[in-house]
TrEMBL record:
<keyword id="KW-0472">Membrane</keyword>
<keyword id="KW-1003">Cell membrane</keyword>
<keyword id="KW-0812">Transmembrane</keyword>
<feature type="transmembrane region" description="Helical">
    <location>
        <begin position="169"/>
        <end position="191"/>
    </location>
</feature>
<dbReference type="InterPro" id="IPR048279">
    <property type="entry name" value="MdtK-like"/>
</dbReference>
<dbReference type="GO" id="GO:0015297">
    <property type="term" value="F:antiporter activity"/>
</dbReference>
<keyword id="KW-1133">Transmembrane helix</keyword>
<dbReference type="InterPro" id="IPR047135">
    <property type="entry name" value="YsiQ"/>
</dbReference>
<feature type="transmembrane region" description="Helical">
    <location>
        <begin position="93"/>
        <end position="116"/>
    </location>
</feature>
<feature type="transmembrane region" description="Helical">
    <location>
        <begin position="367"/>
        <end position="394"/>
    </location>
</feature>
<feature type="transmembrane region" description="Helical">
    <location>
        <begin position="197"/>
        <end position="219"/>
    </location>
</feature>
<protein>
    <submittedName>
        <fullName>Putative membrane protein</fullName>
    </submittedName>
</protein>
<dbReference type="InterPro" id="IPR002528">
    <property type="entry name" value="MATE_fam"/>
</dbReference>
<dbReference type="Pfam" id="PF01554">
    <property type="entry name" value="MatE"/>
</dbReference>
<feature type="transmembrane region" description="Helical">
    <location>
        <begin position="406"/>
        <end position="427"/>
    </location>
</feature>
<dbReference type="GO" id="GO:0042910">
    <property type="term" value="F:xenobiotic transmembrane transporter activity"/>
</dbReference>
<dbReference type="GO" id="GO:0005886">
    <property type="term" value="C:plasma membrane"/>
</dbReference>
């Protein structure tokens, strides 16, 4: 294949891609492995506990998508400003991302703490699952503001090609999380046996350590020009010398115009995907436990591909910001071919490993069979799903074509995914793996129109010129 030969000959492209991708993959892999360990440990408490924690985390999933929207929107601007060399504007982007993220987290903390049963009842009518989820939710919500701060910093650091620090921080956080999970879920080393509440408390402790470690390492890490913390916050204060307001109207307008469609995209898409959980929660604990385990396995299986997406978004953004439009277009083609070929290989590996992977979970024969079939569905749709992620999260957004991304994500969920979930799960009462396959039809719809939008080249522009 001609494009594959071009990729293999472009040593600089491969070097930059892997230099960014590998640390991002390691960080995501560590995060998802701890989720896997959480699921394994909580699985010892029974299927109701797995289902309860899985549904409670759907509430976090909506918040996480809000933070992802903020970080993605901020990362678009930060990447292009880094390519252009406008360091003061990177500082502005970080401040806004933290303010919006922490403010948005309070909208989730308050209902989750004061009305946990109401929140759980949205996802499931089962009394036992609601009570278990309530114990988890009232504690875990205190980690949300810390997540908002950490995600804002990590996003800006990645845009500036600092990707190793987040890996170190994630490693520290995971060790803390696993240790306290073992202590607090089961009552080991003299700690109280708290069950699902212990899992939540362990996560909060880990998030505190993560946020503190992030700030300490950022403000102590040495670069060629001094400390990284000074670089982000203090060194470039030209607005004080000129009397220019730190957050001027022109910059705020540009930020809102670029980031708000991404934030709306992730939030609306996440809310739509949460509707799937409402269907799963009404299909019984076995179905909910199976899809919770499948989602955990998916996250581990996709770390490489999401790493490529994140790396390509940064590199394309840097090139567009420095007006290297032809180079960005060429590299986008490279990423499309890479993603397609690697995702096919990944799908084959997942299919071969699905039975051994499902066997590590302590579940009933019914849930075991459901997990195997759901993972099979996931593997079959994997290439389509990964190409969609590349087009929408990396290519279109890197050039500020965020409204098209919003349209594609939202219409696919609300016009295809949700109707399929309701028909399959509630009307025809089909098995969970068939309902999951029906929902995934949205990925086919999205791929067709995202490719058409990519070919129109409206993403190929410098938005910080």
């Amino acid at each position: 294949m001609k494009r594959l030969k071009i990729i293999l000959k472009d040593k600089e492209f491969l070097k930059k891609t892997f230099a960014l991708t590998i640390p991002i993959v390691l960080q995501n892999l560590l995060n998802n492995l701890v989720n896997l360990v959480d699921t394994l440990m909580i699985g010892k408490l029974g299927e109701t506990s797995i289902a309860a924690v899985g549904l409670a985390n759907k509430y976090f999933f909506i918040f996480a998508l809000l933070t992802f929207g903020i970080s993605s929107g901020s990362g678009i601007l930060a990447s292009q400003y880094w390519g252009k060399g406008e360091l003061l504007n990177i500082k502005r982007v970080l401040r806004i991302a933290i303010l919006i993220g922490v403010g948005g987290s309070l909208l989730f903390v308050i209902p989750g703490f004061f009305f946990p049963e109401f929140v759980m009842r949205i996802f499931t009518p089962l009394a036992g699952t609601i009570q278990e989820g309530r114990k988890y939710l009232v504690i875990i919500v205190f980690s949300y503001p810390l997540v908002a701060i950490s995600v804002a910093f990590v996003s800006v650091l990645r845009s500036m090609n600092y990707v190793k620090l987040p890996v170190i921080i994630t490693g520290i956080s995971i060790m803390v999380n696993v240790f306290f999970n073992y202590c607090l879920i089961f009552g080991n080393f003299g700690f109280p046996r708290m069950g699902v509440a212990g899992a939540a408390l362990a996560t909060v402790i880990a998030r505190i350590v993560e946020c503190a470690a992030l700030l300490i390492l950022v403000y102590s890490h040495k670069t060629g020009d001094g400390k990284l913390g000074d670089f982000i916050h203090q060194k470039y204060n030209k607005h004080k010398e000129t009397g220019e307001p730190f957050l001027n109207k022109l910059f705020l307008t540009k930020y809102i115009r670029t980031a708000s469609p991404v934030i709306a995209n992730e939030f609306m898409w996440g809310f739509g995907v949460t509707m799937y959980s409402l269907v799963y929660g009404r299909m019984g604990d076995a179905a909910t436990a199976a899809i919770t385990i499948t989602n955990t396995v998916e996250q581990v299986a996709l770390v490489l591909f999401f790493g490529i997406c994140n790396a390509s978004a940064v590199l394309l953004g840097n090139e567009l910001g420095s007006n290297e439009l032809d180079k960005a277009e060429e590299h986008a083609k490279n990423y499309i071919v890479m993603m397609f070929l690697l995702s096919i290989v990944g799908a084959i590996i997942v299919l071969m490993a699905r039975i051994p992977v499902a066997s590590i979970f302590d579940v009933s024969d019914e849930v075991f069979e459901y997990v195997i079939l759901c993972i099979t569905v996931f593997a079959l749709y994997m290439p389509v799903r990964m190409l969609n992620s590349l087009f929408i999260v990396a290519i279109l957004r890197s050039g500020g074509d965020t409204k098209a991304s919003l349209f594609l994500d939202v219409t696919s969920v609300y016009l295809v995914g949700i109707p399929m979930a309701v028909l399959g799960g509630l009307v025809f009462k089909l098995p969970i793996y068939i309902v999951y396959a029906m929902i995934m039809i949205e990925e086919v719809y999205k791929l067709i129109f995202s490719y058409i939008r990519y070919r129109q080249k409206k993403w190929l522009k410098n938005i910080v010129a």
